[in-house]
Amino acid sequence: MVKSSVLGYPRIGADREWKKALEAYWAGKIDNEAFESQLQEIRLNHLRKQQAKGIDYIPVNDFSYYDHILDTATMFGLIPERFAYEGGKVPLSVYYGIARGTRDAAASEMTKWFNTNYHYIVPELSGLTPVLTENKPLVAYQEAKEKLGIEGKPVLVGPLTFVKLSKGYSASETGTWINRLLPLYVQIVQELQQEGVQWVQIDEPILVTQLSDEDLQHLRTIYETLHASAPTINIMLQTYFEAVERYQDIVALPVQGIGLDFVHGRPGNQQSLQSFAFPQDKVLGAGIIDGRGIWRSSLQEKLDLLNELSAIVSPDRLIIQSSCSLLHVPVTTDRETKLTSELKNALAFADEKLDELVLLTQALTSGIGAIATQLYTSARAILALHQSNERNRSDVQQAVEKLRVQEPVRSVPFAQRHLAQQDKWQLPLLPTTTIGSFPQSAEVRKARQSWRKGEWNQERYTDFIHQHIDTWIGLQEEIGLDVLVHGEFERTDMVEFFGEKLAGFAFTQNGWVQSYGSRCVKPPVIFGDVAFDGNMTVEETVYAQSQTKKPVKGMLTGPITIMNWSFVRDDIPREHIAYQLAYALRQEVEALEQAGIGMIQVDEPAVREGLPLKVNEQEAYLAWAVKAFKITTCTVQETTQIHTHMCYCEFHDMIGSIEAMDADVISIETSRSHGELIHSFELNTYKLGIGLGVYDIHSPRVPSVKEMTDMIQRALRVLPAQLFWINPDCGLKTRGYDETVASLQNMVEATRLARNTY
Ligand code: GLN
Ligand code: ZN
Asked: Is 650 helix (H, G, I), strand (E, B) or coil?
């Protein structure tokens, strides 16, 4: 009999009650006991829901108090020495200390979970000895069984993935670390077996990345050891986000099930299955419902896929599951009351995906007649959206098709533009500027809310924004900056602001997903053809320019960043969505230019976030990402200066693509990786204008003139002064007024000193 399975359920709760509980606890508003009981209630609720829907294999231990990698690290007692920890079960104070920092110790680093927008806490292994502090999967299993009679499927992060995602050891010590951890994994799995657990899900998403022969040897050691130590428990070796590398080696491991992604790992996984078959003694966890996308599945297409799979794997060895944990999608579409029915019916968040899993399982068990109505409803919902006006804008499609087949280029090359721009703008050597936003005080946020709620009329709101622009234009002039900005006071968020003004976007009321810790984001939904629908930034920018003789830089978010921070439609390639966005944004760039704005910054902080996991696909992605940027910016006059900005630059391996964007000036975040960046410029020449952030905006600390002078001097050893700009690391919206003014004053002073030495 075919069974259904879920790899993980969202933690945050339909009403973000998980986030609220965490934040109340951190703020000291609830005590340990109340907190534990609130979290238990949330956890059990999630299990009840899956039970009621009829999911066969319900995950346990997928729940977390913050992050599942941090859970794994603390379960193994891997607490960096700077945190006071005396052994035994890890107290919440230590657990949250690692995640968020304490007065005496900095938090552990956080980084992206594969190619998702979820961030995990990076374990620091250096100098530590692992011990099992608590068998968390076992505790979770017992709880589900005792409280709800659920025969749960404990989930844990596999040893290879865990070690590879950790830091604080050299590559040659990978084996040593696996050998240290393996006995603890053995103990966990043995105790689970003893308890009567039938299936345990061991997540090894690292298997979709490039593996060395050594990695493969580690993998064999791990799973041979686990199998030998707990021979009667069933291990589902779970992968996701892409097709596995080395399929044949992986399916030969001594485990009882292999979980593969047939949404984001397609066609790769399916081809492997067809070419090399699937072992007769194993169960296939077929991840066919998209765990990361928000769209309703075509049940018919999924049945077709299942038919293809059943030709290779007999139905009694098939488990129908989500392609990955549902952590990456919002909880339910139930509470969306403002979306059009066309759109709402075409969506499936976590709970709706549970329904889809159950339906497909029923169809395979009892024949498709059992789900005839639902087959029809799903097909109709998808068709309705497909045929909607928003998805059929021939004006956009034709224009974008033309752009797609052309090579976007500026009218003249950089060297020539550079001279023309110097001539026009007459900027001093080492020009100073900022990245765009100025402090968003409580007052600014309140004003925006009052206006959104209709308590303030447009006129009052516009006046308010203008007053803020006045203040900050005045301050920037006083401080002595060379290129000014209007400050972005009217923007809530750099993606939402544009999404609300462009056609093809929708906004949910409750479509929250966890980004890191208690931090949730509500990405816009790009559901239709994206189209320019009138000016978005011209009014504020032109107003700011009217208040000063210095140049004011216009400020837009770039196409790739808007795309990577949204949920996007899956009926056309991402590349095409990027070009649609680029075409729309180009119209804004042109409108700004026409309104007399001669410097325009198009921010692309999230280019790297869309980088495919497969190394051989990265080049193609970067090529069309660069092209989208160029479509946005290439039509301006040679004297119009195009700026761009990027954050967290693991810049070194992208330098070619960044140069290919052909922006006249790029500003990049460097504070956290300055040395490495400078090094990358020693190896490469960068021939366009560039500003390396000279101070870290993530801290309220005011950097001294000396610190910044040093930073500038170091950078000027590898970069030509004629191309160098001086700016902070990133936007200043999260900073306070006083520290911002003081820091910028010091920055300008440091620049003055640097100029004197030239
Ligand atoms: N212009 C934006 C700002 O200053 C850039 C933000 C970002 O890089 N994330 O806020
Ligand atoms: Zn930034």
From this structure: coil
Catalytic positions, written as ranges = 698
Q: How far, in Å, is the centroid of ligand 2 from the Cα of 697?
A: 9
Say how far apart CA 499 and CA 494 lie, in whole Å: 9
Binding-site members are 16-19, 112, 435-437, 488, 519-520, 565, 603, 609, 645, 647, 669, 730
Count of Cβ atoms closer than 10 Å to residue 201 Cβ? 29
Residue 685: band (very low, low, confident or very high) from pLDDT cuts 50, 70, 90 = confident
Residue 647 is predicted with a pLDDT of 82
Asked whether 421 and 639 are in contact (CB, 8 A), the reply is yes
pLDDT band at 645 (very low <50, low <70, confident <90, very high): very high
To the nearest 10 degrees (0 to 180), the angle between helices 372-386 and 299-310 is: 120
Helices assigned H by DSSP within 527-598: 538-546, 559-564, 574-594
Question: Residue 649 has what pLDDT?
Answer: 60
Alpha helices in 297-349 (DSSP H): 299-310, 341-344
Confirm if 495 and 561 have CB atoms less than 8 A apart.
Answer: yes
Q: Report whether 12 contacts 43 (CB < 8 A).
A: no
Neighbours of 685 (CB within 10 A): 11
As a whole number of angstroms, the distance between CA 708 and CA 442 comes to: 30
Q: Quick: pLDDT tens for 70-81.
A: 999 999 999 999
Q: What is the pLDDT of residue 93?
A: 96
> Is 725 strand, coil or helix?
strand
DSSP secondary structure, 334-348, as one string: TT--SS-HHHHTTB-
User: Using one digit for the tens of pLDDT, what is the confidence trace for 450-477?
Assistant: 999 999 999 999 999 999 999 999 999 9
DSSP class of residue 153 equals E
Averaged pLDDT of the chain: 96
Q: Which ligand is nearest to the CA of 492?
A: 1
Rounded to the nearest 5 degrees, what angle is found at the Cα of 135, between the Cα atoms of 133 and 137? 140
Rounded Cα gap, residues 324 and 312, in angstroms: 22
What are the E-state strand segments in 400-489? none
- The percent of the chain in helix, strand and coil, each rounded to the nearest 5, is 50, 15, 40
Q: Pairing mode, if any, of strands 724-727 and 689-693?
A: parallel
- pLDDT for the residue numbered 677: 72
Kindly state the tokens that stand for 172. Answer: 């040659």
Contact assessment for residue 379 and residue 546, using Cβ atoms and an 8 Å cutoff: no
Question: Ligand 1 pocket check: which of 521, 553, 564, 645 to mutate, most ligand atoms within 8 Å of Cβ?
Answer: 645
Using DSSP bridges, classify how beta strands 689-693 and 665-668 pair: parallel, antiparallel or unpaired.
Answer: parallel
Query: How far apart are the C-alpha atoms of 293 and 289, rounded to whole Å?
Result: 9
- Residue 267: is the preceding peptide bond cis (ω within 30°)? yes
CA distance 249 to 247: 6
* Token pair recorded at residue 25: 């606890």
Any atom of ligand 1 within 6 Å of the Cβ of 645: yes
Task: Tell me the C-alpha distance between 12 and 325, whole Å.
Answer: 13
Q: Residues 527, 343: contact at Cβ < 8 Å?
A: yes
pLDDT tens digit string along 78-97? Answer: 999 999 899 999 999 999 99
Q: Cα separation of 72 and 156, whole Å?
A: 8
Q: pTM (2 decimals)? A: 0.96
In angstroms, the CA 592 to CA 538 distance is: 6
Confidence category of residue 178, pLDDT binned at 50, 70, 90: very high
Kindly report the length of the chain. 758
Mutate to test the pocket of ligand 1, among 117, 490, 494 (most ligand atoms within 8 A of CB): 494
DSSP state of 721: G
Sign of the alpha-carbon torsion through 739, 741, 744, 748 = negative
**Ligand 1 mean position, distance from CA 350 (Å):** 31
| pLDDT at res. 674 | 59
H or E stretch covering 521: strand 519-521
Question: Among all chains, which residue has been given the structure tokens 């199998």?
Answer: 227
